[in-house]
Known about the structure:
Layout: H1 4-10, H2 47-61, E1 65-70, E2 73-78, H3 87-98, H4 115-126, H5 139-150, E3 158-161, E4 173-177, E5 198-207, E6 210-218, E7 221-228, E8 243-249
Helix pairs in contact: 2-4, 3-4
Amino acid sequence: MISKLFLIALTLILAGCGSSAKKQQPANTVETVVPKSNPYQIPVDSLKYKIIEILKDEWVFFGQQKVVIEENEESIPHVGSWEDDDFAHSEQVNRYWRSVGMSRLSGKDCKEPWSAAFISWVMREAGVSNYLFPSAPSHRDYLSHIMTVGRDNPEAAFIPHTIQEYKPKPGDLICANRGAGYFGEVVEELPMSLNAKLHCDIVVEVEGKTLHAIGGNVRNSVSKSILTLSQDGYLQLTQHRPWFLIIENRLD
C-alpha cells in the first residue's frame, strides 16, 4: 500500500524518478488480464486496432497502473511498475528512446520526459509510416507536422480538433498543456514561442461518459488515465489535465 502523504505528493508531479519512495502493492491487487477481444468496433486488421493492442500490452508490462481524473481531483487506485524500478522496465524505456534516435537514454534518466518517444515507438510498432506520423522526442514536433498537414485537409491521416468541436474515439490522441495557462478555445497553431510543455495520450476505450487513455511517462510509468466526459461526450478541461487538442486518427 502507499501512504496518503505519498499519494498527495504524487499528484503534484507528472513525471520523475520515484523508486526509492514507492512501496510495492501486494501481488494479489493486480487485476486479472482479460483475454484480448475487440470492443472498439474497429477492424482487427486495421492500424488503429494494432495501435490500441500495443498500448494495452505495454500497459500490462508496466503493471497496469491506473490514474483516475475526476473534475479537479486525481487518484491512483493501482500503482504499477515505474521507469526505474528494475532493468527490464528501464530498458523498455530505452527502446522508446531509440525510436527517436536517442539511444543513450533509459528509464534511469528520469528527468528526461519520454512520453513523446513512447507515442512514436507505438506508431512505428503498429506499422504507421514516419511520413504520416514523424517520430519525435517531443510532442510539439510531431504535432506541428499534424497541424500543418491535417488542419485544412479532410483526407489527412490525422486531423486536429479542439476539445469543444469533436468527441474523442478509440485511436485518437488527446493532448494537454503541462505548463501554466490555457491556449483558448480555438487551436490554430501550437504555442511554439511559449516553449510549451505538452503531453499526449492515446484513447483506448470510450464507454458512455468514461474515457480510458494510455500514455507513457504518466506518473513514472505507462499508465491508463480514466476520465469523465461531459454529458454530451466531450473532453473536459481539468486542473490536472488541461486538455486543449484532439488528434483524430483516420488511418483506416
